[in-house]
Amino acid sequence: MTDFDYDVIYIGSGHGANHGALKLVQQGQKIAFVEADKLGGTCTNYGCDAKLLLDGPFQVLEDVTNYQEAGLVGQPNLDWEQLMASKHAMIDGFPAVLDQIFAKAGINLYRGRGRLLDAHTVEVNNEKLTTKNIVLATGLRDSTLPVPGHEFIHTSKDFLDLPTLPESMIFIGAGVISMEFASMMVKAGVQVTVVEFGDRALTNVPASYASKIVAKLEDEGVHFHFNEAVSQVAEQDGHFTVSTQSGLTFEAAYVFGATGRVANVENLGLEELGIEAGPKGIVVDDHLRTAVPNIYASGDVVEKSIPKLTPTAAFESNYLAKVLSGDDQPLVYPAVPFTVYTLPRISTLGVSLDQAEADPETYNTKTAPYGQSFDTKRDLKAEVTLVYRKADQTVVGAVIYGNDAASLINILTFVVDKGLKTTDLEQMIFGFPDVTYNMLNKI
Ligand SMILES: Cc1cc2nc3c(=O)[nH]c(=O)nc-3n(C[C@H](O)[C@H](O)[C@H](O)COP(=O)(O)OP(=O)(O)OC[C@H]3O[C@@H](n4cnc5c(N)ncnc54)[C@H](O)[C@@H]3O)c2cc1C
Ligand SMILES: NC(=O)c1ccc[n+]([C@@H]2O[C@H](COP(=O)([O-])OP(=O)(O)OC[C@H]3O[C@@H](n4cnc5c(N)ncnc54)[C@H](O)[C@@H]3O)[C@@H](O)[C@H]2O)c1
After folding, report:
1. N or C: which end of the chain has fewer CB within 10 A?
2. Taking every annotated instance into account, which residue ranges of this chain make up the domain Pyridine nucleotide-disulphide oxidoreductase dimerisation (predicted)?
3. In whole angstroms, how large is the CA radius of gyration of the chain?
4. Does residue 38's CB lie within 6 angstroms of at least one atom of ligand 2?
5. Residue 314 lies in domain
6. Contacting residues for 408 by C-beta, under 8 A, at least 6 apart
7. What angle, 0 to 180 degrees and rounded to 10, lies between the N-to-C axes of helices 48-66 and 176-187?
8. 386, 352 Cβ separation under 8 angstroms
9. CATH number at residue 394
């Protein structure tokens, strides 16, 4: 039998890699990470964690707004620089903590860009490492808009490090990232304009709920322009002009772009090994295996139809730990909750409304406002839509619009995943008063 340096080399050290790696090293497998940037990947350093830290005070401002003329007068002041400093104080220390965790676990770390030389050799900084198996967990990056002046467009990484607030911002794209950041910026008093190529925002939530958040942000002062393709960005004296193909121009002190994320598949040596990959990711089978049987992919870099999220990356990483320990079960995803962290949040789960409405023989839906209650902190427009399987009234999907949606959808994940019905919930006792009790009562 061939002697390899490692049992598994992971290229990338984000959630698509580290959950499974920590399991395998505990089982005695010899593991290495190859990481070109900060340990922990996007979520830890440039994504979810940083975003939620910055979003915290804006949630408070949202609650304060809801209580105006109902017990609170006036708004607290936002200090963005202080907020950014507190974000740095927490986030900047994560890679060092992970470094210690990985070292203590016995995982070797190679800092640099990894590349496959053959099915069992990874090259990093001219060093050749041999390995029995390889997991590609290289993630996504923000795409670059192919227009003149694209260098003036800031990315999500830049935004999450924004040292001072500009007085005006143009957001190119009305997808998840833009809508989350625009929600914060309008509350911070920044003049916000959103320019979107398509005819609606947030294509991954039902249109009726995307319209709700657009209307809410418009009420707060955001200007939306749909069906507009950005054709150029120009700078003059530190001010920026964004032009569209139809001839519109917008001016602002800061231009932000979030027009989709593309897979990090270049210069990995994939083509040479016959591994199929493109901007949507690496093509895998139902065991996350590429065309080369001992090379797998995990996390955002996998071409897949489910949302590209931290929990789905972690799920795949854990699944691969089983496969790499000899389990041969194919990958089956449970229901995936997905929350857009706008203010309020929009969460979706399971069978979508579009799917339910297209198949009325199989599904029925019920929409229930739950915000006009004593337990929702005056989140008056909060609403849940449930999707039921008609035959037995099992809850199979949901959409929640409200400040508590991210937590509530996790409760419904149990309901949907375990195939529960109203009659099952009637056999349980939930704490009261609480928004969870209120929402579960609508089922
Ligand atoms: C602004 C933003 C907000 C987000 N918010 C949420 C959220 O609220 N909830 C949620 O679930 N998800 C969110 N996400 C998505 C989440 O960050 C990703 O789903 C998650 O990070 C995927 O993990 P991963 O390990 O697959 O990839 P990544 O975390 O991207 O890790 C890939 C790693 O591979 C490294 N790498 C790439 N190429 C090479 C190479 N050749 N050699 C060595 N190393 C390499 C990279 O440096 C990186 O560290 C957000 C993303 C962004 C950008
Ligand atoms: N809450 C979360 O879980 C969360 C948060 C942030 C990011 N993410 C991750 O990031 C991804 C979202 O990234 P995103 O917001 O960049 O992509 P997206 O696909 O959600 O939105 C991109 C938007 O840009 C628009 N667009 C494209 N070209 C354009 C142009 N030339 N002019 C104007 N608009 C244009 C598209 O029509 C689309 O609406 C998610 O799929 C997920 O993987 C998740």
Report:
1. N
2. 336-435
3. 23
4. no
5. 6-142+262-323
6. 347, 384, 400, 402, 435, 436, 439
7. 50
8. no
9. 3.30.390.30
Measure CA of the first residue to CA of the last residue in the chain; give whole Å: 58
**DSSP structural state of residue 280:** T
> Is residue 81 included in any domain, yes or no?
yes
CB atoms within 10 A of CB 233: 22
Q: How many domains does the chain divide into?
A: 3
**Mode of pairing for the β-strands spanning 239-244 and 230-236:** antiparallel
Integer Cα distance of 311 and 335 in angstroms: 11
Q: Are residues 436 and 360 in the same domain?
A: yes
Q: Which atom of ligand 1 is nearest to the CA of 18?
A: 25
339, part of any domain:
no
Q: Is 177 annotated as a binding residue?
A: yes
Degrees, nearest 5: CA angle 200-305-202:
15
Is 330 among the domain residues? Answer: no
CA of 64 to the centre of ligand 1 (A): 33
By alpha-carbon position, which residue is closest to atom 38 of ligand 1? Answer: 138
**Residue 161 · residue 246 · CB < 8 Å:** no
| Mean per-residue pLDDT pooled into runs of 10, the chain (443 residues) | 90 98 98 98 97 98 97 97 98 97 98 98 98 98 97 98 98 98 98 98 97 98 98 96 98 98 98 98 98 98 98 98 97 97 98 95 97 95 96 96 98 96 92 95 91
Confidence (pLDDT) at 407? 98
176 ligand 2 Cβ < 6 A: yes
| pLDDT score for 422 | 86
Shortest-distance ligand to the CA of residue 42:
1
| Residue 302 near residue 282, CB atoms below 8 Å | yes
Q: Is the CB of 230 within 6 Å of ligand 2? A: yes
E strand intervals along 352-426 = 363-369, 383-389, 394-402
Using CA of residue 289, residue 292, residue 298, residue 300, what is the dihedral sign? negative
**Dihedral of CA 31/34/37/41: which sign?**
negative
Structure tokens at 393: 């009234």
Token pair 């008093």: residue: 189
Angle between helical axes of 48-66 and 80-91 (0-180°, round to 10) = 140
List the one residue out of 390, 400, 384 whose CA is nearest residue 421. 390
Q: Reduced to 3 DSSP states, what percent helix, strand and coil does the chain have, rounded to the nearest 5?
A: 30, 25, 40
Q: How far apart are CA 67 and CA 147, in angstroms?
A: 44
Minimal-distance CA residue to ligand 1 atom 12: 309
Query: 155 and 133: one domain?
Result: no
